[in-house]
Amino acid sequence: MQFKERLLLENQAWLATMQERDPEFFARLDKGQSPEALWLGCSDSRVPAEQLCNASPGDLFVHRNVANIAATEEAGFMSALEYAVSALKVPYIVVCGHEGCGGVGAACAGKPSGMSHVDAHLKPLVALYEQSKDALTGPDDKARVNDMVRRNVEAQVNKLAGLDLIKNAEQPPTVLGLVYALDRGHLDFVCEVAPGQAAAA
Ligand SMILES: [Zn+2]
Questions:
Q1: Alpha-carbon gap, residue 94 to 92, rounded angstroms
Q2: For the chain, what are the domain ranges?
Q3: What is the average pLDDT across 95-100?
Q4: With helix as H, strand as E and coil as C, how does 106-126 read?
Q5: Residue-wise over 33-52: b if at least 16 C-beta within 10 A, else e?
Q6: Could you point out which of 14, 26, 108, 117 has its C-alpha 20 to 30 Å from the C-alpha of 154?
Q7: Strand order in 92-98's β-sheet?
Q8: How far, in Å, is the centroid of ligand 1 from the Cα of 97?
Q9: Residue 93 CA to ligand 1 centre (angstroms)
Q10: 56 in Cβ contact with 50 (< 8 Å)
Q11: In the 8-state DSSP scheme, what is residue 13?
């Protein structure tokens, strides 16, 4: 079966299951959304936001890019952030990194990937790596990349918490940092900045 046919068929199967479980489910979602969080995660196919925390449609407002970067110079990211904070008034923003992140690994490689958009996107992460590389711990490159994954999550959390858009929001959200372990399916807490609490330097 071709990919396109499989997609449409799997959708039919999913919607039948959802309707059977909760006949009002789609009618309720049609009335509007009130998600609990904006999720900023990595585009990696192995880190599906909703599935790994058992969330349903309507629970998370999701933005994903390579290496979960708060790309404040990009209208794509900023529009999602602004809408989540100013219109949906989400109580939480979640930055979720993951171990074995290819984007973080590329930033740690010390040389351009050869893909111009990827390299442009990873620039702030390369700068963070240059600042952090002497402090990275671990017995091998894999462990050092995973240490960098955590530092990247902390950096993105602090960057977001320091934005005027967040600080001056009518209802400022709490910003949470998490790391997902691909090999164990485990989500780990890294850091948190509550409203009114100063972001780390
Ligand atoms: Zn990744």
A1: 6
A2: 1-32, 33-193
A3: 98
A4: HHHCCCCCCCHHHHHHHHHHH
A5: eebbbbbbbbebeebebeeb
A6: 117
A7: 60-65, 37-42, 92-98, 174-181, 186-193
A8: 7
A9: 18
A10: yes
A11: H
- The average pLDDT across 111-122 equals 95
Q: How confident is the model at residue 105 (pLDDT cuts 50, 70, 90)?
A: very high
Average pLDDT score, the chain: 96
The residues assigned a catalytic role are 42, 44, 46, 98, 101
Other beta carbons less than 10 A from residue 143's beta carbon: 13
**120 Cα: distance to centroid of ligand 1 (angstroms):** 16
What integer pLDDT is reported at residue 198 of this predicted model? 72
Q: Please identify which residue in the block is written with the tokens 């789609």.
A: 26
Residues 33-193, CATH architecture: 3-Layer(aba) Sandwich (3.40)
Residue 18 banded pLDDT, cuts 50, 70, 90: very high
Task: Give the span between the Cα atoms of 168 and 162, in whole angstroms.
Answer: 10
Kindly give the distance from the C-alpha atom of residue 178 to the centroid of ligand 1, in angstroms, as a whole number.
13
